[in-house]
Amino acid sequence: MILTYDGLCLFEFSTALETLGTPPSGWEDRWYNVAVASADGPHLRSGGGLQLAIDGGLELLDKAETILVPGWRAVSEQVPATLVKALRSAQHADSGVIAPIIPR
Questions:
Q1: With CB atoms counted within 10 Å of each terminal CB, which end of the chain scores lower, N or C?
Q2: CA atoms of 100 and 10, how far apart (whole Å)
Q3: In the chain, how many domains are there?
Q4: Is 16 in contact with 51 (CB distance < 8 Å)?
Q5: Residue 46 gets which letter from DSSP?
Q6: Degrees, nearest 5: CA angle 55-93-57
Q7: Band of the pLDDT at 5, cuts 50, 70, 90?
Q8: What pTM did the predictor assign?
Q9: For residue 66, what are the β-bridge partners?
């Protein structure tokens, strides 16, 4: 599961998507089933203005084995409490969370 949000950094997002969502050359099957969850609703734009298609909202986190969180949009911006709660809930449900910064 890759978590997205409005103002997302495309470099970190695309690196995760390409690494996990694209099978290596010569392989027929993917290594992972990758889904994209949104913290900010169904219509998102990256920091550069690119529109993103997503698979669902924060409810998808509870079903994920691993959650990748690309770097937050600004170090000065508070992470929403709903997102912190969803990540903590998923972590307690034995999902692994991989993030540059785990919100407190």
A1: C
A2: 15
A3: 1
A4: no
A5: B
A6: 20
A7: very high
A8: 0.81
A9: 96
